[in-house]
Amino acid sequence: MRQYVEASDCLIMLGTFMTDINLGIYTARLDPARSISATSEKLSIRYHSYEDVRFKDFMRGLLAARLRRRKRGKFPHPAPITNDRAPRSKKLTVKRLFQRLNAFLSRKTIVVADVGDALFGATDLFIRGKTDFLGPAYYASMGFAVPAAVGAQMANPNLRPLVLVGDGAFQMTGMELATAARYKLNPIVVVLNNQGYGTERHMQDGPYNDVWPWHYSRLPDVLGAGRGFVVETEEELDRALLEAERWTRGFCLLDVRLAPLDRSPALDRLAARLAKRL
């Protein structure tokens, strides 16, 4: 998908302010010579800027232009999902976690990802619908996922949230599961428990990246609702997801214990691009 967008001969960006947040820390490669950008501030066509063109006037002109639909070119498709459901006692990795979650998604799932590797890893998931993924902007909104899942399921009770959240982010707002219990919501919460701020460890590690080791799987005992699971192996992940899928009376929380320096393939790709820039 990224290659498809970056190779476009005319990329139109409407109301989009290009920053490090939505450009992947400036690793996106958008050619200004093949771009049109219209915001409330100005209109840019290729390398020319027009300060006195209002956004609503540009939109009216665009709608009145009667543009003809072009035959769509070859659209890139990701590799098909491969997932071995056979139980394994092998220690779980971030890569295998997201591969398994990919196969777990259904048309009734909405993915809600928090910042950090929960968000990076989630970019490789196959989302079925246009509104089935919610995520914040990098570290600007840490602690987003659990409260957002409550709002998402209140707005559309037909969708069951799959919450992906790191242990650091969960410790900020995870107790909002009490609200989920109060209103009889049933999100499936996957806590990526790597003993701290994993993304930060790859930049500069130290004790400031550590968080207090909660017993996440015991939170249902504290709240008097929900179910908790400890997941350390692929076999335990398969079993926990199967149980969570069946148990719909309340929230399920999976304490997925990962190595502190393990990371997703998506974060590996971002790190490689950043290294080239540096």
Notes on the protein architecture:
The chain has 11 helices and 10 strands. It is of the alpha/beta class. The chain is globular and about 60 Å long. Strands 6-5-7-8-10-9 form a 6-stranded parallel sheet, with helices on both faces. The protein has a 4-stranded mixed sheet with strand order 1-2-3-4, with no helix packed on it. α3 packs parallel to α10. β9, α10 (234-246) and β10 (252-257) form a beta-alpha-beta unit. It has helices at 2-6, 55-64, 94-104, 117-122, 145-155, 167-173, 177-182, 198-201, 219-223, 234-246, 265-277, and strands spanning 11-14, 35-38, 43-45, 48-50, 109-113, 133-134, 160-166, 188-193, 227-231, 252-257.
How many structural domains does the protein architecture include? 2
N- to C-terminal distance = 25 Å
Radius of gyration over C-alpha positions, nearest whole angstrom? 21 Å
Q: DSSP strand (E) fraction?
A: 15-25%
Write down the overall geometry: globular
- Helix content percent band: 25-40%
The stretches of 5 or more residues where confidence is low (pLDDT under 50) are none
User: What summary fits the major beta sheet?
Assistant: 6 strands, parallel
The number of helical elements comes to: 11
User: Would you give the CATH topology of the largest domain?
Assistant: Rossmann fold
Mean pLDDT over all positions = 86
Helix and strand element order: HEEEEHHEHEHEHHEHHEHEH
Query: Would you identify the CATH H-level superfamily of the largest domain?
Result: Thiamin diphosphate (ThDP)-binding fold, Pyr/PP domains
The CATH architecture of the largest domain can be named as: 3-Layer(aba) Sandwich
Class from secondary-structure proportions: alpha/beta
Beta strand count: 10
